[in-house]
Amino acid sequence: MIKVFKKRIYDIILFVITIMGLFYLSSIIISEYIESDNLKFFLKIPSFFKSNSLDVKAKTSSNKQNIDEIFNVWTLRLSEYNQNDFEKAKKEYKKLLNSGYRVYLKFIDNRYVLYLGPELDKKKLEKYTKELFKKYKLNATIEDYKVNVSVNDTVVVI
Questions:
Q1: CA-CA 20 to 30 A from 50: which of 3, 15, 29, 84?
Q2: Domain limits at 34?
Q3: Domain boundary at 16, 36, 71, which?
């Protein structure tokens, strides 16, 4: 009976220590900084959790430019077509799609705009820019991907 009682006390103490340790670690690991001008959230990771295999450059809030690059989503604006050139836009879309690129077509301000993406890795889009210029002579530009579609923007389903 006493052995069972001691075992339960031991289990309870171990449980409490584990919970306290988890709370302590979570308070060290997660510290949020709110940047007042655009309300972005940042994570501060203690040095003992950092690994060379992680490709995260945002270690402190003083490195805001790198943080913006990590949390932004990018797209590649490939070409524009007049409202009357839908068949050209459709042909270019299908050619790139069949070549393995993830492309989409939007109707913005009476023009069809062909995009590639969206992509989290901006460097990948820079590589695509060079590749598409060599293959198809497309002068692409990297833009922020806008998730919210306005009234004048319509994604074209082909």
A1: 15
A2: 2-71
A3: 71
Phi/psi zone of residue 41: left (φ > 0), alpha (ψ -120 to 50 degrees), beta?
beta
Residues 152 and 82 in one domain: yes
Separation CA 118–CA 73 (nearest Å): 6
| 68 token code pair | 């913006």
pTM over 0.85: no
Structure tokens at 138: 């497309």
Domain shared by 114 and 60, yes or no: no
| pLDDT tens, residue by residue, 16-45 | 888 877 766 665 554 443 333 334 444 444
Q: What is the pLDDT of residue 92?
A: 94
How many residues are present in the chain?
Answer: 158
Cα separation, 101 vs 95, whole angstroms: 9
Question: In angstroms, how far is CA 156 from the centroid of its own chain?
Answer: 23
Residue 129 has pLDDT above 60, yes or no: yes
For residue 136, give the 3-state DSSP assignment: helix
Burial of 156 (0-12, 13-18, 19+ CB in 10 A): middle
